[in-house]
Amino acid sequence: MTVTAIITAAGSGRRLGHPQPKALVRLHGTPLLQHAARRLVMSGQVDDLVVTAPAGHERAFRTLVPEAIVLTGGATRQESVAAALAALHPEADVVLVHDAARPLASPELVSRVVAAVRAGHRAVVPGLPVTDTITAVDPSAEGATAALGTVPRAGLRAVQTPQGFDRAVLDAAHLAGRDSGTMATDDAGLAEALGEPVWLVPGEESAMKVTTARDLALAGLLLDEGA
Question: What CATH code is carried by the domain that includes residue 207?
């Protein structure tokens, strides 16, 4: 099987407090995009890389990841992934979709996801057990609101990336999502909407998502500790 990794990197750095795209923000002197790309390659599982970039920053991204195909991303993550899928080599059988905002996902995690897809699971995500108590609320409520009931956390997982797919499943999921107007927060959600079972492999703390300045500081601590 030929494995292609799509790195979604078209997001802004606004919530990080940076004027530049998030993928260009530096963690210990190295842009988040490079951290993510290097770990994918270090897994030994990835044959090709495709990166989605914010409009106007394609040249900078090509300089950072010269081995990758760099495309202009869409207005949403879903549109960016769809654009990347259209550019994949015809022989790509397995597709990983990874967020540049998760720069410290380990090569071992990448290998676990790919191994699960190769074992016959056509949609695979890493997940971590949820440690907080979770309760349901009315999503339209503002301010103080009544709790609708605690959700047992033993059966919950926080989903991470990279997410792995049989290429045909991911193509079909995005096509169906486009035709139906379905918007999902990740590619696994599109696969679920298609009726495809999604399988989980163990995630890891180091695959945390960098969204705020506090997250960036925490990622720095994890890197110091050998992540």
Answer: 3.90.550.10
